[in-house]
Each structure stands twice: as C-alpha cells, then as structure tokens.
Design goal:
Blueprint lengths: L1 E3 L5 H12 L1 H10 L3 H21 L3 E4 L3 E5 L4 E5 L3 E8 H8 L2 E7 L4 E7 L3 E6 L4 E7 L4 E4 L4 H9 L8
Parallel strand pairs: 8-10
Antiparallel strand pairs: 1-2, 2-3, 3-4, 5-9, 6-7, 7-8, 9-10
Helix pairs in contact: 2-3
Amino acid sequence: MEFELAPMDATVRVLTLVALSLPVPLLATSLVVLPVIPLGIVTLLVGMDVIIWCWMRPSRFEVDAEALHVIFPWRTITIPRADIVRGRIVTRSEFRAEYGFGARIGAGGLWGGFGLLWTQKRMFMLYVSRVDRMLVVERHEGRWLLLTPDDLEACARALTGTSGSLTP
C-alpha cells in the first residue's frame, strides 16, 4: 500500500510561507545595496530548501509484506515489518500528555517537521506535515517513528495487520 505525505495543516502552511518568503527581501536588498553578501545568503537559503525537500522531507510511505519504506526524492529508509510492533494514531494533545514536550533536531517549519524529535520519554524519527493527528510507529528495536501519511487509519491498519477501524 502506498500513502502520500498528508497535506500541511494551517500551522505548518503559515510557517512554510514565512520561510519561503525570506529570500525575497534579501534578494531585493542585494540588488540595491550590496550584491555580494545578501546574494550569498539567498543562495544558502535556497540550497537549504532544496536539501530539505529532497533529503529530509518524504514524499510518500509504502507498506508491503516485508517493510515500511519512507520514500524521499534522493533516498529511502526501510524498516523491516518484523521490527514494527504497531501503528497508533494520536492527537497533538495525546502525544504531549504521553511523551511530554519535545525538541526537534533537523528541519522544521518548511513543509513540516523532519529529522529527530527528542521528547522527555523517547527519541522519534520525525516525518510530519501536520501536527493535529499523527501516526506513532512503535518498534521492537531502534527509534520509533512519528509520521503523517494522507490516510492515517489505513496506514495504521496496514502496519498492524488489523482490518477494523482505528480511532484517535
């Protein structure tokens, strides 16, 4: 089964628009005042955007009989099915109540949050494009995952092998 990364929620959409608009005033300044420094900063920001889009932001998640595959434009992460305990849907408040506050290590604000999430109780691999409802993928070994596929319920069922509906 294949699941796209979920559409951004309002919070992530606003953060993304702000982050993507940062190069505009810098580029305008570079054309008028001092072309070298702002142009270098704009180039750096655009380069970071490309790296986030191609290396850190997954485009989709695939679940098959063998593994969960987190697919990026430039790479793939594969988690064997034997290592997956279950997929569980949580809301933002449920997640915070269970794991406490967290600190992101990686990219955040531009199309979502990607990288690692260090909470008071556990370290997660983080691949989310929204923060209202998320899928916690529990593992026997290694870091658990926090994902936002476009169909949370179907992805959770595919990972846990259940046919019933799951509620948050």
